[in-house]
Amino acid sequence: MKKLSARRRHPLAALVVLLFALAVTGGLYAAFAPADKAQADTTAQSLAIKEGKQLYTTGCASCHGTGGQGTTDGPQLVGVGAAAVDFQVGTGRMPMQQPGAQAPKKPVVYTQAEIDQLAAYIASLGPGPAVPAKEAYNPEGADIANGGELFRTNCAQCHNFTGKGGALTEGKYAPKLEGVSPKHIYEAMLTGPQAMPVFPDTTMPEQEKRDIIAYLDAVNSDDSPNPGGLDLGGFGPVSEGLFAWTFGLGAMIAVAIWVAARTAKARKS
């Protein structure tokens, strides 16, 4: 007993007791708190999937099938991921008003909360690209020059070098990118909607996507400088050449007619 009492009065006894208490408290928190949080997250995700399935059954299943397997009226959705749903529904392209070569952008039907629920349900059908975090598509601090080079190499053939859009084959078209949110531009590159190719992070890393978004934001900004004067809507050298040919040639013909008329009048007099 005397030995035990002596140990209790040891100068380090209070420190040992404090460390032991902290260890027990930390262990209890690690054992119970994360489990509660994980359970809450799982419950919320399950509820979102359930609500999303109801929305899907009402507004999407008639074309895409009851389980997203696809039909003759709509493609399969298993494996497209939440990002594809967020883009298609978030831009109003889905649900389509009528079948066609391409789904046009139109007013959004669902709220963002409903879009998130639809995305959660579709994501539960099979693995696919997730909705990107804000940091992934934020253009602040990105390399605009590199983005311009990447865009002209990979995108300008269809979208025009300033994102004004253009016609494709069989009634399809590349939409204009002016006014499109950075989030939806990123999702389009990630999922490849309609006639657009897919640019996964393995092919085009996140930083390069941000550079492209920064370039489009710069060229379509109202403050973007235009040292060349009138840009004819930014449609490029073809439209500018047509303008010069039509009006330039017309002016030359008008001058030639005027000279011929003056010459004929001078001869008569």
The CATH fourth-level homologous superfamily of the largest domain: Cytochrome c-like domain
- Biggest β-sheet description: 2 strands, antiparallel
Class of secondary structure makeup? mainly alpha
Helical stretch count? 11
Radius of gyration: 31 Å
- Quantity of strands, as a count: 2
Q: Percentage of helical residues?
A: 55-70%
**Spatial order of strands in the largest sheet:** 1-2
In CATH, the architecture of the largest domain is Orthogonal Bundle
Mean pLDDT: 85
Q: Enter the CATH topology name of the largest domain.
A: Cytochrome Bc1 Complex, Chain D, domain 2
The backbone outline, from C-alpha atoms, is elongated
- How many structural domains are formed by the residues? 2
State the distance separating the first and last CA atoms.
Answer: 143 Å
Pattern of helices and strands: HHHHHHHHEEHHH
Task: Describe what this molecule looks like in 3D.
By secondary structure, the chain is mostly helical. The protein folds into two domains: 103 residues, Orthogonal Bundle (Cytochrome Bc1 Complex, Chain D, domain 2); 94 residues, Cytochrome c-like domain (Cytochrome Bc1 Complex, Chain D, domain 2, Orthogonal Bundle). The chain has a two-stranded antiparallel sheet. Helix 2 crosses helix 5, helix 4 packs antiparallel against helix 5 and helix 9 crosses helix 10. The longest helix has 47 residues. The mean pLDDT is 85.
